[in-house]
Amino acid sequence: MGRRAGLCIFLAIAGLGASSLPALAKGAGVFEATPRSVPVRVPSGYRAVWQDDRLNPHRGPRTAQGDAQMAGVWTDQVPMRLAPPTAPRFLCLGIYDTSEAARPTVRLLRDMGLPVSRGIGRRGGRPVEVIYAGPFDDPGALSRAEARLAHAGFHDLEYRK
After folding, report:
1. Is 123 part of any domain?
2. What is the pairing mode between strands 31-32 and 90-96?
3. How many domains is the chain partitioned into structurally?
4. What is the pLDDT of residues 25-82, one digit of tens each?
5. Nearest CA among 141, 144, 89, 92 for reference residue 118
6. Is residue 89 within 8 Å of residue 161, measured between CB atoms?
7. Is residue 80 part of a domain?
8. Structural domain for 134, as ranges
9. d(CA 139, CA 89)
10. Are 24 and 31 in contact, with CB atoms under 8 Å apart?
C-alpha cells in the first residue's frame, strides 16, 4: 500500500474528509499541511476530563521565534538532548535608574573602543537601564575586555549570554 492510500485510510478512520488530504511536497515525498481542527464534542451523559488545554486546536503551530528558542535549549537529534551551553558574549557593567546616570559609563566604554549594548528592565517595579560591554565574538576578546575594564575600575563584572 502506498503512502497516499495509507493516508486516505487514516483520514477515513479519523473522520476527516478527502479535502483534508495534504499536497505532496515536490520531490521530497513528504506530506505538508496544516491539519484542520476537529471540534471535540462530549457525548451526553459524559463530562470532559481535561481542562488543561491539551485539546486546544492551536496548541501545535510553531513560529520561527519559538524554533530559535528551542534550538538554544535542545538539539535537533532524536532523542532530543540539552544543547551545549553557549559561551557568554557580554559583560554587565551596571544597572542605572536613569539614562542620564548611565551616560558616563557609556561614554567611557566608547572612549575605550569597546562595543556598548543597553537593556531596559524593571527593578522593584521601576524601570532601569542595564549597560553591557559587548557582544564579543570570541572568548579571547571577552577576557581582554574584562581585563581592560578591571584596570579602569570595574571590578564586579558579570558575564551574560
Report:
1. yes
2. unpaired
3. 2
4. 344 444 455 556 566 788 899 988 877 777 666 767 778 888 877 877 788 888 888 8
5. 92
6. yes
7. no
8. 90-160
9. 8
10. yes
